[in-house]
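quick one before i forget lol
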Amino acid sequence: MTERLWNSNYCKVMTANFTLFFAFYLLTPLLPLYLKENFGATKDVIGMVLSGYTLTALISRPISGYLVDSFPRKKVLLWSFFFFFIFFAGYLTASTILLFTIVRTLHGAPFGSVTVANSTAAIDVLPSSRRNEGIGYYGLSNNLAMAIAPSVGIFIYKYTDSFELLFWLALVIALAGLMIDSTLKYDTPTTRRPDDQTAKQPNNQTTKTKRSLLDRFFLTRGWLLAVNMTFYGLCFGVLSNYLAIYSKEVMGITGGTGTYFIILAVGLIASRLQGSKALRQGKLTQNAAEGTILSTIGYLLFVACPNEFGYYGSALFLGLGNGHIWPAFQNMVISIARHNQRGTANSTLLVSWDVGMGLGVLLGGFISEHYGYTAAFWTVAAAQATGTLLFLCATKEFYVRRKLTS
């Protein structure tokens, strides 16, 4: 008999995840405008203020992965969500740009923590036979929030001209997510369980004594998966940060960025729905391979066809590609981790993506400054192709060798 996928706890963590990302993306497109209008911030200052959030999120993720694996997971989740919620109140009270910078920067830490804790909770409450499929569907809550929230925020601001209302709305939505997660009822695997520490794995020898300090914060067994994901994060980092200016200066497309990301989100949602059967059957490497190839086509189409067809077509291919890559890679990294390392596994994947995104911003800025935006995006296409070859030639076999048997 097939185990039930859509149990009440799974529905709760999905809904909470939607509110988490909705509250985040509701404000994201409007914060630069808020800083400019309220504090007279320049472009350079705006970039510095907003980058602090990413930095603290990056730092907090490996720490939160360790905490999730070392303490009761529900408590870690609720405390992380509480601080994520309460920091929205800080935006309402920050009267100077310095205070706003402090609040925004510190806000990144609970955001990084709660994304790790909530995704780990989703894995815990899924029946083992439906875990691959369930992780794929779980990402839909992110994608829907990304597709809807920015448009909702812009619409509300257009008709109310009130940033304060948006801050209050984000605060209330985050509180709703916290309340939903507080009703979760599940028994989490505890750390240092004998069966977890001696889980069957290639050449395993008393994991308890061989586990390094690094392994508490980074899943060393999954290092090549992390490296591979960094390539994909780098590519998306360049795209997301330099898309608007490239499309305007090179393609002559203005005002199409919103449509681009809507099409990308549609592709993400469609691929997760389409790929659910393959995930349910355990075809993780097949899903990942399809995703990497589709994304490579998307980046090549973007830079090789500098017109509206290439522009919007690439959005669809990239959405379809990333929609396959993410659940496949997340399932793979979870499959090579022990039960008491699920938080660490999740944080490892998220950190590798964040590192790639950061490198993409730096690399894209350097290349575009010295050689132009076209050269920057050809570099992105080459990096994506390299990541695809790495997966097909090395990472795929790397995963198969390390996949745990229990």
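fyi The CA atoms of residues 64 and 113 lie 5 Å apart.
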